[in-house]
Amino acid sequence: MTTVEELHKRFLEYPLVSTDSRKIEADCIFFALKGPNFDGNTFAREALEKGAAFVVIDNPDYHWEGKTLLVKDVLTALQELARYHRHYCNARVIALTGSNGKTTTKELIYSVLSGKYRTIATKGNLNNHIGVPLTLLSIQADTEFAIIEMGANHQKEIAFLSNIAEPDFGYITNFGKAHLEGFGGVEGVIKGKSELYDFLTANNKHAFLNADDPIQVEKLSGYVRKIGFSQTDPQYFNIRFLRADPFVWLEIEDTVIKTQLIGEYNFSNCCVALLIGKYFNVPLESMKEGIENYVPENNRSQVLHHKHFKIIMDAYNANPSSMKVALEQFGKMKEDPKIAFLGDMFELGEDAEREHQQIAELAASLNLEEVFLVGENFYRTQTELQKFPSFDSLSSHLKTSPLSSGTLLIKGSRGMALERLLEVL
């Protein structure tokens, strides 16, 4: 069996990892992972023929002399290699989790720290038991900071990922109504996400916190190694919210920062990036530049101009917490007319009916010209709003009754893929 030390030696020679036989790069190490419908071992020869330097396998039947590295379990080997490499390098690791805003916050922290330090961060949302190891393996000898995003939809997942990344610092964006089915309700979400703070406190590591969030304050009560931001508490780093019209404006040390992020809910995401930058002595002007230059993408609160429409495209994902704040912010906007397209929120289990009904009632109470509800859950709500059981039925309606202009909010869970509305509009 190949030991982690031997595996790491090979990795240093060939520091490129692949887990997809369709995307083999020359001189990479291919990890033959298993999935519900495939066995990566069966692609070992194909990966080598495509140029892989080595293949890590856990089935000796696929041995190729001098080219395969046999381990007990490929996934475990990938995770152990990542943890080994994380300690081999000198980068300080900052871990990040939470119900909403993880990716935006990660990008903001990266934007601030990279103004002074050699920094890497999770690409996209590779934040699970495979993505976290792959991010750790992208740390290079000169990397000074690694920002690791961690996602979860069940208890113990954040604890597991924390034990792989072993972060020096960590932050939880918030505790919201996300993945209620897997976590077992809101209390389960709080418990599951707090596993990051549990790891930090148990290992005497530093915790960043939003000191205006009572749950975070309670979770870190009595813990000494915490660094926080607040709008009011003088014992923490003070940052002032100015306005969101719709872009967030804030003030730090008499310096005004105008972001390109929509909604007051993004204020705390900016704050922790500034807090971390301040803690690591990034100059204020550099931090201001990093925050102001960050533009969201990939359907996360993007502002688009499409034909005669101004569009707030927030269709990457949704849960009751993020849907509520997005709607409330949209309702405050002075644009006219305002039209909302809201897609089903997934993974809510027995809470699905109640949560969709509450969102429908909130949407109906706001000053919106029109609201279109899309998906089976929204279709079952008791409401006078326009509702459609599927995207196709909504699309058919819009083709026969097209919209002429307006400001649109488009938000729904990933599975709804509401960005398809751009084609329909």
Structural summary, described in words:
The protein has 425 residues and is an alpha/beta fold. It folds into three domains: 4-78, 3-Layer(aba) Sandwich (Udp-n-acetylmuramoylalanyl-d-glutamate--2,6- Diaminopimelate Ligase, Chain: A, domain 1); 89-293, Mur-like, catalytic domain (UDP-N-acetylmuramoyl-L-alanine:D-glutamate ligase, 3-Layer(aba) Sandwich), CATH 3.40.1190; 302-424, Mur ligase, C-terminal domain (Protein-Tyrosine Phosphatase, Chain A). It is 36% helix and 23% strand. Strands 8-9-7-10-11-12-13 form a seven-stranded parallel beta sheet, with helices on both faces. It has a six-stranded mixed beta sheet with strand order 17-18-22-19-20-21. Helix 13 runs parallel beside helix 14. The chain is globular and about 70 Å long. The mean pLDDT is 94.
CATH class of the largest domain: Alpha Beta
- Shape designation: globular
Number of strands: 22
Structural classification? alpha/beta
CATH topology term of the largest domain: UDP-N-acetylmuramoyl-L-alanine:D-glutamate ligase
The number of helices is 17
The CATH superfamily of the largest domain bears the name Mur-like, catalytic domain
A few lines on this structure:
InterPro entries: Mur-like_cat_sf (IPR036565), Mur_ligase_C (IPR004101), Mur_ligase_C_dom_sf (IPR036615), Mur_ligase_cen (IPR013221), Mur_ligase_N (IPR000713), MurCDEF_CellWall_CoF430Synth (IPR051046), MurE/MurF_N (IPR035911), UDP-N-AcMur_synth (IPR005863). This protein is of the alpha/beta class and 425 residues long. The chain is built from 17 helices and 22 strands.
